[in-house]
Amino acid sequence: MSDGDVTAEVRTEVTDGVAVLTVSNPARRNALNLDLSQRLVAAVEAANADDAVGAIVVTGQAPAFCAGGDLAELQEADPATLKRVYSGFLAIASSPLPTLAAVNGAAVGAGINLALACDVRLAGPTAEFDVRFMQLGLHPGGGYTWMAQRALGAQGTAAMTLFGDVLDAREAERVGLAWRAYDSDEDLMAGARELAGRAAAAPRDLIVTTKATMRITSRLDAHADATDIEVRAQAETVHSEAFAERVAALQKKISKK
């Protein structure tokens, strides 16, 4: 598939503060070629810039989630080109908004990266997590080993990467690669929208700040250091209008009981 192929697109649907981004490259089972990666970057940037969006869901055009990178392009790639291939899932990874992957089919190679780039992964009945780098004779890229070890630990990453273990939805849920597994794609998308909607219902600046804090504290070794960071941010929200309004609403609700 060449750059600019009209069959490759990222569709965006915003409902109740949740932007659902559907990666669609049906001729290649949603493989991330250069064109599609750039379209995903644009879609993520648009969602980040939209004050009406409070959370992002990423999914694939059925029946796949993402079949990896475009192998023809990869055979000709240099480091600069590879970074352009990575750009789509790296845009997801760097989004300040909560991000959720609704994995509705095979996630292979770069498709694993796309799923791992999200804060939370949900798995549908046909979800399949297949790293496949070793089988292709290809070194992992895009920060895969960093993301995988944080999601799976050393043993899980080795099992999937070096030993080629492929996980279905229930196995992914069991090992913690997926937060939850669903019995139908309809339930998967309903669950994704409901979960993302909870994040979108929070004050946008609060959820952005909290995600940023989580990124910082995940790198710290001492509880005391995390407390020092959080106390400043929490002190600001104590005096916020959103906190005052929500406390008043809660008190009113309690008083009626």
UniProtKB/TrEMBL annotation:
<dbReference type="InterPro" id="IPR018376">
    <property type="entry name" value="Enoyl-CoA_hyd/isom_CS"/>
</dbReference>
<dbReference type="InterPro" id="IPR029045">
    <property type="entry name" value="ClpP/crotonase-like_dom_sf"/>
</dbReference>
<protein>
    <submittedName>
        <fullName>Enoyl-CoA hydratase</fullName>
        <ecNumber>4.2.1.17</ecNumber>
    </submittedName>
</protein>
<dbReference type="GO" id="GO:0004300">
    <property type="term" value="F:enoyl-CoA hydratase activity"/>
</dbReference>
<dbReference type="InterPro" id="IPR001753">
    <property type="entry name" value="Enoyl-CoA_hydra/iso"/>
</dbReference>
<comment type="similarity">
    <text>Belongs to the enoyl-CoA hydratase/isomerase family.</text>
</comment>
<dbReference type="Pfam" id="PF00378">
    <property type="entry name" value="ECH_1"/>
</dbReference>
<keyword id="KW-0456">Lyase</keyword>
